[in-house]
Design a protein that fits this description.
The protein is an alpha+beta fold and about 70 residues long. About 35% of the residues lie in helices and about 25% in strands. It has 2 helices and 2 strands.
Length: about 70
Amino acid sequence: LRAIRGADKSHITSVQVFDLYEGEKLGENKKSLAVKVWLQPQKTSFDETMLAEISGKIVAAISKHCGGTLRNG
């Protein structure tokens, strides 16, 4: 959660885990986390480009600090 919060401190106001899955489909010693991320724009509303940029920062922070990856499907 700290890695996500630190990905964009100026816009991310809160982070919460809402689902945790551990199972054979993921592989040994792996977990799948689903998180809610609350964002607060500073000057203008977010557009798709800004949201994609923040999302990219979050994924990069998880990868760097936790070795996590974005799971598709």
